[in-house]
Amino acid sequence: MTTSPSPSPTGSPLPSAPVGTSPLTRPVVLGAGPVGRAIVDRLVDRGLTPTVVTRSGTAVDGAKAAAIDVADTPSLAAALAPADAVFHAVMPPYSRWPELFPPFQAAIVRACEQSGGVLVSAENLYGYGTPGVPITEQLPLAPTTTKGRVRAELWRALAAAHEEGAIRAAAVRASDFFGPGVIASAYGESVFGRLAAGKKAQVLGDPGTRHSITYVPDYAEALVRVAERPATWGRAWIAPTAPAVAQAEVVAIAAEALGVDPGIQRISRAMLRLAGLFNADVRETVEMFPEFTHDFVVDSAAAEAALDLAPTDLETAIAHTAGCH
pTM value? Predict the structure, then answer.
């Protein structure tokens, strides 16, 4: 049986959480981006005080801050020593994934070997390529891009460490995500921010294609529930995600919530390439373009059942995200 979304004390639509009943006691969150912060919110809702590890010691409401470079294995191992759950939400610059992501994860795994806490990694769907069918956990990893190959390599290394008994690990994979605090995603400021500013939403590829988008609070809740449930460890899950709709419909729902016209500026591959001459991260988006020219749909039924978690209704999630702009 799945749970329904329930309002938070501030009225925001968030998945229901068993407040005060979590088996976790000493969680650590690596990274303070929108996913890391959403994980902290879900842990705080459970009456926990997580530690957030970033290079600069970023302060996050409800959490303790630790300034540690994740590549510094001794310092990281000391910080993770008491942890019973470690959430890996570290995100190196988009243009430096091949260079930085593998050593970052290797250092995190080495540090977790000494703590014994489960390592739950926040991943995405790049490793599946563009299969042309609904993406489920049963599909093989078949990357077609550089960043997809990095993601596949990271999961294979993490799964091997779990299977060898070096650590206990799992992963949750989200599609392109949206929600409060999300800026850089394809469904961040380019859609919500621009509409709120009275501009046309920028949509990659074909606005008529269906594209699954994951609500960040749902993603974070799934990550926490995986950490709480040993039966889910040792595999990767697809985060509970609402049924896919056309990109243009996402814009229309957001525009209605904001009370503006649902204008769309279609971004072509050529436009991305031109912009990429001046921005390395935009340049790295070009290889992901096929995800936005064909239907890109996920089926999260397996995780919904295993985690007793239904995705937040898309209209509700979009309306709350729009209300944060």
Answer: 0.93
